[in-house]
Specification:
Order of helices and strands: HH
Strand content: under 5%
Number of helices: 2
Shape: rod-shaped
Largest sheet: none
Distance between the termini: 105 Å
Length: 72
């Protein structure tokens, strides 16, 4: 019990601040990395969607031309 009363916690040093700041920087960088990853996924999804929509419109136009040719 006597040892606990005599215990003096160590003082805060520059290294403690550096650890906190570096941890914060790592978390911010991870957040930007996740944001970039999500934006990339969204861009790929959008490009694939536009390609599929374009193919559908091309097929629709082709079918329409065939129908017009068949009807006269």
């Amino acid at each position: 019990m006597e040892e606990e009363q005599d215990y003096v916690p160590r003082s805060i040093t520059l290294a403690d601040f550096l650890v906190v700041i570096s941890g914060f920087a790592v978390n911010v960088l991870r957040a930007f990395e996740m944001l970039a990853s999500e934006l990339l996924d969204l861009a790929v999804y959008n490009a694939n969607r536009k390609t599929k929509v374009s193919k559908v419109w091309e097929q629709f136009a082709s079918d329409l031309e065939k129908m017009e040719d068949n009807n006269g």
